[in-house]
Amino acid sequence: MTACEVGFGNNCTKQYTIDVKNCSAFLVFKLKPVDSCNTAYCFEYGDECVNDSVSDVMVSFHNITWKKEEINGIVRYDPSINLLCSFTPSADDTLLYHIDWYVDNDIVIRGQTVDKTSLQDAILSAEDLNNKNKKINSWIHCVVGAKAARNKFPCFTEPSELFFAGIEILNETVTLERNKEETIAFRQTIPLVSPTLDIFGIQQPIEVRVDLSFPGNIENQCKGLGGIARECEKKLQIFTYNETHMYDDPSNWNTVYNIKLHSTDGSNYYLSNRRLVLRLKTNSVEGQGAQIFSNVNLHDVNVNVIENNTAWKGKCCSSYADPHQSTFDGYRYECQDIGCIADKTYIFYRNQVHLQEVQVKHRNCWGRRPRCVCAVAVRAGQDVFVIDGCNGMQYINFPLCNENSLKVIKETDKVYKVYFPTGTFVKIFLYNYASQSFYINLEVYPTVADVSRTDGLCGVVDGDKTNDLRRKDGSQDDINSYDYHNPPNMFSLSWQSTSTEDLLSMSQTVYDQLTPLSFYFYKLCLCDGEKIACSYKHFDECTSNIGGKEYNCMLHSSSRKRRDLSAASIFQQHDNEYDALLRTKRQTISEEEATNLCENDFQQSEYYNTCLQIVPNFSNETFVNCISDLTVTGEQSLTQLHLDTALGQCQTYILLNSTLQAEHPDITTIIINLCPNNCSNRGVCSGGNCTCDHGFGGSDCSFDVRFPPTITQLSDNGLCDRSEEACEDVTLYGSYFVEKMGTTCNVDRKEINHKNSVISTTSYTTILEERTLFEGYCGLQHGADTPWITKFTFNLSNDDNYYSENFTVYVYNSQCQTIHNDSGNVYFTLQSGYCFISGSCIQSATVKINDSCWQCKSETNVYEWTWDCNMTEISTSSPMTSDSSTVLSTNRVGLSSATTKSTLKISKSDRNMAPNNQEEELAIGIIVLIIAVTIISIIILATAVVMVKKSTKGKQNSRSSISPSFLDLKVIERNMSSKPFFDSEKLPSAQQYAQTNASQASF
């Protein structure tokens, strides 16, 4: 092509030869540089240019088209979505319109041509997107121009606005307040479709959903803040083929979907991570047309977590010793004989919004007036955890566990930490200083979920101690009206539990009326791809796993464990007398002497002084309590109790304060790793764990473990029912089961058959494991088979020198077995209407799996399968093992009445189908059969001889004479046909018959 440079006086002052390439739909020009800086190439429209233009160009959803496919009677409709490029055409009806489609600025269709009558054909289909590997969540636009002919190009074009086709996130950045809920919203800008399956006229669309994920949420939850949501997926509205008309109305599919978002939280004061990323993605969808919706990553949502309320930080509600109580906001008061009445239950802490509470009970301790907490109940929804040491009780367990919302950590033998779903936690310290009974020190550490929502003896956590004496009826006492010698008794009394709310009553009626968490709350889920974990627990599980081991709620909620609640409530009747004896020996200590004693012990602990210096909110509260208790009780050993309490509280404050740990890493690490009770001066402390001296055990080396625990009762009184549980262990109740006690269970296992005979004996040893101070267990190891009864006899020893008495456990199946105890002679019988075959209880008339010819016939044989099949004319009962699959099928066996020859036929298919376990009994049948046939043969032979002799003499006899032997033979044959001459239940096997005659035995 020649290009001309236009001058002032000449239209072609200079020529340039330009290369041009025809690319069918367009031309490519290879332009050469021009000589002058003020010269440029210009392209003029030729005479074929259309000057008309279009307007109002836009992209929108058009319609859904379907393809039908039928496979094996199932009809499948595959949908395809179509987008329309609409515009206002020129008034000239002869013009054509050239359309180009772009997806994310990549051209996917070029030169689509329509006229004024086919404007509805200007579409971009799902197939077009698939061909270019494009999916939804793309920006799409079209470019339209008018032209005179199909092989021409428009001179003027008009583009549409960008159209976002997919799922639009309405708030890509959200701000989430700590312990609050935030909503993330999205909507479809085009309908999402999926294939419809039509099965027998019933249509069902394939599911399309949006999956939520916080990437790395589960693996990284220990490293900082995590995200949780009510659900990890959101199902989208999809219509079937028959509902296609629903897509015509955008309100049916252009709806807003909401996602409720939370953050994992806990009682930690500071958040190490305040930013979360929520990733949204569609699921994998079948169908060709639906591929544009399959596995599409949507826009990420950035979540910024903020914190506006800090009134809960550094707060602790406590009850120490006899009891010295402190509210969350730091108001201290006493609760002695008038305020805290013995054996009455009080509401210690309550958050009614979150359905969680702590209740306590007191009893006399160290004298007439002092009261100590002896029982505590922790409740969330319909879960209740109880520790009860009142009046000789020894109980640590879940009396109710329906929602698995509480997390209980046994940190040491005597320390339990119980987490509420909000992250608020309770620390329970068992102690028995100067008493054989156990008492309880109690601490409750709040979270932001408690601010302005708590009541009870702990008061309101809001940073204002003046409102902490709010009574149960809502009235409020003036905190300035009370002091140590004049405690707020009426306030305390107002928080007594009624009989209908007393969790320590162990009343099923009380438990049944508890409101479940599911009534008000949703489970929240950790969403991380295919890894999903949902629960009512909103706190960071990782931070709750520091030290100790979890006391599993589900383990103790089985049917057996529920029945064991009474067994776990062991009484020690001598406690009160023992404590009374101790009280008579005490002496009076003056306040000055008490101060010196407490100061001496506290000052000797360098870590206590360090806690006072560097730990915020840590005070000398326990030191003051120490002086008070020594003055009232005269018991000097209580100084160690209060020092341990102080150091324990200091440890907790440090663990909750990551900033403090970062500022003082060395000293805080040492304090965190202090051993409980300084190992009672009977061991060596290392890394927070005690290595006890010989003869001592427990997490603080305070227990004498030279002798095994004292056992007061076995679970279910030594019975274990296989119909209800696996019987993998036996629970022992008594005192004490502690860490590092080194107790061995020496077990003898005897397997007993239904005749009460021992068929096998095995001995083994296993370690006695502790669950609580009052509960342990020995493992029960079973043999390969399940016998009639398994009897375990065991004793306990710590050093193979001292042994406990023997204990016995019987493993049986109550479904069909009944236990009898005849003056100590224990035995079991089979219930009527049952068989017991291969270790299983089988109801009478039940047929064997995969072999209906074998039945349980309790009236025939209760310990083996009985053969009962309609294809045979001879009923055969065979004591066959339950795992045998042999089937017996016999032809009719008898004597032919047509001849004098008796024939026993055995078909080829029968030879290997008789029960294999009948050989000994059937051998007797063979012998009987042979003898019987031999006798009959002799009789027939003798009769024939007689007949021959009489026939010889027949000429001498009268013509009317008839041989009686012939009549006798008929009678014999008739009798033999009516009654078999062998016992059908001792039918010989085909193999035994074959040994007599390979295919047919003739006699």
Mean pLDDT comes to 82
Largest sheet: 8 strands, antiparallel
By DSSP (H or I, 4+ residues per run), the number of helices equals 15
Distance N to C terminus: 118 Å
Structural class category:
alpha+beta
The fraction of residues assigned to DSSP E strands is 25-35%
Q: Based on CA inertia axes, which overall geometry fits?
A: flat
The total of beta strands comes to: 61
Number of domains: 8
Work out the helicity level: 10-25%
Strand order of the largest sheet: 26-25-24-35-34-33-32-39
Rg, rounded, reads 45 Å
Low-confidence stretches: 555-564, 571-585, 871-922, 945-1003
Task: Summarize the structure in short.
This protein folds into eight domains: 1-43, no CATH class; 55-165, Sandwich (Immunoglobulin-like), CATH 2.60.40; 167-305, Sandwich (Immunoglobulin-like), CATH 2.60.40; 317-520 and 552-575, no CATH class; 586-674, no CATH class; 705-823, Immunoglobulins (Immunoglobulin-like), CATH 2.60.40; 834-867, no CATH class; 903-1002, no CATH class. The chain has 15 helices and 61 strands.
